[in-house]
Amino acid sequence: xxxxxxxxxxxxxxxxxxxxxxxxxxxxxxxxxxxxxxxxxxxxxxxxxxxxxxxxxxxxxxxxxxxxxxxxxxxxxxxxxxxxxxxxxxxxxxxxxxxxxxxxxxxxxxxxxxxxxxxxxxxxxxxxxxxxxxxxxxxxxxxxxxxxxxxxxxxxxxxxxxxxxxxxxxxxxxxxxxxxxxxxxxxxxxxxxxxxxxxxxxxxxxxxxxxxxxxxxxxxxxxxxxxxxxxxxxxxxxxxxxxxxxxxxxxxxxxxxxxxxxxxxxxxxxxxxxxxxxxxxxxxxxxxxxxxxxxxxxxxxxxxxxxxxxxxxxx
Length: 315
Prior knowledge:
Number of helices: 11
Largest sheet: 4 strands, antiparallel
Distance between the termini: 34 Å
Shape: globular
Helix content: 40-55%
Order of helices and strands: HEHHEEHEHEEHEHHHHH
Number of strands: 7
């Protein structure tokens, strides 16, 4: 595995674009604006945004198409300065980006568990296949695993969240409850069997190997700002898969030396170390089009997103 943007993964925000096979310029642009321009009211020149996406191999045609589509979807607002168009995030989009980013950064904190399991069940006819697919995807994002056909379990997610999801998708044949302990004989499946832990460990091990190589490159001092920008965004896009892959099962239920805590530590370390260089590159690109606002570009550390730190440029 290389540190490239993950596909078909990430937060399930209603406004934000999802990853698509082959890459998504729309999601890339939202990620970049959220990381470096989230709280700014000034609009950025379209040329700067096109150039910024070009750092990731997105063509000018693809970048301008992403700008237009995001504006039509209500994620971007625009303004005119002479013949030039400028863009910025809408407040609704900025709010959803912040919520999603905070969840990703906080993932893996491994809080205390009271021994309770949430059980959720629903059924839908074949004629509503698309709704069933959406329901399953959203349940996985909430932290549920499929124990039996139509029966989902989670030690973390709430019954209220599952029922709210059912309401939003108009799934009326659904029920949820919370209980402790596991009843049944030796042939019964334990709730933890709803997840393929061997497969999940292999994904973590791959991620950790990539992080070690990335950290070695950072500490060597040979990484340029342009490389840091691409590496930081790609690192986030890879790590953001884990909240939908790993339900944060309590460590007491996991095999020994479960890699989630180490993966979280390595991600935080690399993400923050890449921040100053990546920010430099973003400012360089914006300055080519508007030097009066380029210094406003500021990226966030993991501590800032969790809510107990400062932005890189505030240090």
